[in-house]
Each structure stands twice: as C-alpha cells, then as structure tokens.
Design a protein that fits this description.
About 50% of the residues lie in helices and about 15% in strands. By secondary structure, the protein is of the alpha+beta class. The two termini are about 60 Å apart. About 30% of the residues are buried.
Length: about 450
Amino acid sequence: MKSMADRAANRVEAGAQADERFGFATYDPDAAERRGYSDYSYWGSTLRAFLKNRVALCLLLLLVVLLAFTFIQPYLPGQYDANRINNYPATGLQVNNMNPSMHNVSGTVPADTLLRCTEVKGLDGWYSVTNEILTIPKRTDFTVLEYGEEWCRVSYKGQEGFLKNQRLKLPDDPTQTPYEAKCNFPISLFFESADYTNDDTNSGGYVYVRRADVNEPENGMVRTKAETKLYAFPSTHGFLFGTNSIGQDLWARVWSGTRTSLYIGFMVALTEALIGIVVGVIWGYVRALDRILTEVYNVLDNIPTTIVLILIAYIMSPSVSTLIFAMCMTRWMGMARFIRNQIIIIRDRDYNIASRCLGADSRQIMIKNLLPYLVSVIMLRMALAIPGAIGSEVFITYIGLGVPLDTPSLGNLINEGRKLFAGAPALRYQLFFPTIILSLVTVSFYIIGNAFADAADPKNHV
C-alpha cells in the first residue's frame, strides 16, 4: 500500500497537470447577447405552415389573379364600357338581352354576293347591309316565277327576288309557274334564296360588314370580295357574358362590379379590424373601463344591425361611401367583443405578470404580449369580414338602398338577374355569372382565412 506521503505527492502532481489544462474563460458581451436569441421566426414559421396547405394556396393565387384582372380588364383590347348602352347603329335599337357568345358573327356570305348597303354616320370602317329588297304588304298579289321547297322566285312591281314559301297561299300544283299568289302577312323579298339577316336580334334586319371585305358601293349596293363574315353588331368582339335588358355588356359590368364589391369588402374589413382591435384590447385589459364599455356595447348591440344599415342608407344618398360608412358603424362591435373576451383569458398569465414585474407599461404589454397571441383569430375574422360585407351590400341593394345602378356592383347585378330568374328562363345567365363570382370570392376567403388562422396559431408553433 502507498504511504500517506506518496498519495500526497500524487495529488500535488495531478493538480499541477490540471492547472496546465484549464484556465479562466473570458467573457464576451456580444457573444453572450447572440446566445440569448434563436433563429426561430414566428412569421417565417407561419408562412411555411400556410404554404403546406395546397388548396388554400391555390385559392389565394386565384383571388390575386381575379383581383388583378378586375383592374386590367378595362384596358384589354375590344372591351366595352361597363355603363355604355350599346345600340344598333342602323336602327338605334338597343342590343338588349343578347345571349353570351365568344363572337357576334351572325353568318357568312359567299363571294360576289349582292347586298344593299347603308352608310351610318359615325360608323367608320363598317357598312350596315341587308339582302332584303323590300317588304311586300299583306294580302298583296305578286307573281311566282319559280317554285322551290323553301324559297320561291317571285316578281313584284317589276322587281324580281326570292321569298320564303312558308306563308304563301299556293295552288294545288305550285310547280306549274307562273301564277299569282298572296300572303296574309307582310313578307320580305330578298336578292338571293337566303336570309342573311339576324332574326334573333332587334337589329331591324340589318347586319354589318367591314368595308375592307366589300367593293365600293354603287347605287346603294355592294358586292363581297370573298367569303365574308356578317356581324350582328359592328365589332369583331362578342359579348362574352351577353347583354342586359338595356344593352349593356355584362362581361364589363361583372368585372367592374367585382372591383366595386371587393373595394367595399376590404375597406369595411380594415376599418372593422382597426376600430375593433383597439377598442377590444383596451376593453379587455384596462379593468376600470370594462363596465363602462360593456354597458355601451349592450346598448348598441340591442339595436338590430339591419335596422341601422337601412336607416343610414335611407338618410344618406345611396353611394359606395354610404354603404362603407353604414357597415363600419355596426360591424366593429363584433370584433371588439371577440378581442375583449380573448384578452380576458390571457391577460393574467405568467408572462404578462412577469412583464409587469419587470416594469413594462400597459402599452408594451398590449402590443408585444397580447396582440401577437391574437394574430390568428384576427386574420380569420378579417378574412370572413370581406365576404360578409359583400353579402351585406347585396342585401342592401336587394331592398333598393344600395349603390346606384350606374355604379356596377355584385349586389346590383344579382338583384337585376333575380328579377329575370323566374319570368325569363332564357335570361338566367344574367344571374348566374355574378352569383358564380360572389360564391367563388366567399368560399375562397373562408378557406384562406381558416388556413392562415391555423398557420398563425401559436399552439402550432411549439
């Protein structure tokens, strides 16, 4: 066994070696400060979580494209003004209730076709044409020169032409020509055995050709150079969503109305969030104000929101700003109450008590401790407030107190389409198009709001 002296000598030797291996650590304040933080980013984590939801991401991109298109659409080539009442230049009649179409070509005519031409003042680059020679009055005699199953060649007051034989009073053997015939109704006489006019419109028997497609007029007549397109309206662009009862282009009005309704929705949502968050945080955190603000809320909340909207819209002149003001007067209360309830739940938690003990004032606690915790619910309510405001605009317009008719909005368009839904089934497209856009906006905001709320929830960031 080792003696006491040997053990003491070993301890001294080990201490000497330890002194050589260890030393005092130096203190660097900057390095210590960096170690107190992590690379974690709340908003970065929220964004990554949101991007994982493919459905919400696709709908967000769709909404961005839709919103951008509402501003781009008026500047695209061949667009009609949203408030312009389109008339047929030759007759002055409105292009009313024209069905949706990618074009307005009513037909084509072969080369070297003779057409009666009318020059319309102010219509550059176009002729209004018809292959109708004249109209034979009812119960008037004319001579059938040649019989056909669909068309007959006839002579009337020295003028030869073709007419449809469906309305003629014919003899037992109509092929034995010539013979005298008559019709109980006025009937049109045409240059050829074809009717190139558009009978489904109020164009008055006129169609339109581009001047470049026909020869120069001679004695009020033109001939086509080649196979030529005839247009129901003097434009190469059609009415994609059709026209309404006064000849306005629904395509332009739907996008203009979407822009107006989204503007109303965003303004109401931002105002609701701004007022509701400020009032709700103060209401929930400052205990001395809780009773007063609660009584104020109870008084205001007992007044039906619909009555307030109707009264404000009725007293003030109907306009977009009136609707925004009316909805902002009532919608902030729901946000304020919701924020107040959430603040009461979290205001006395340990981290808020610790902040007060460390000397943080109420403003710092509300901004840095309370509001970040409520980001998810705030974003969800804002996302739902936008389609909610659009729905309120549709309702106010439905009862006749919405924006004026010369300001297109989804509310105006849906209200006008609703009137035609039952009485005119062929015109239901005037309701379908704005309703589809409204449904798309509502569903998209709901799904996006829920997805972002889930991504921003602090419980999902642990």
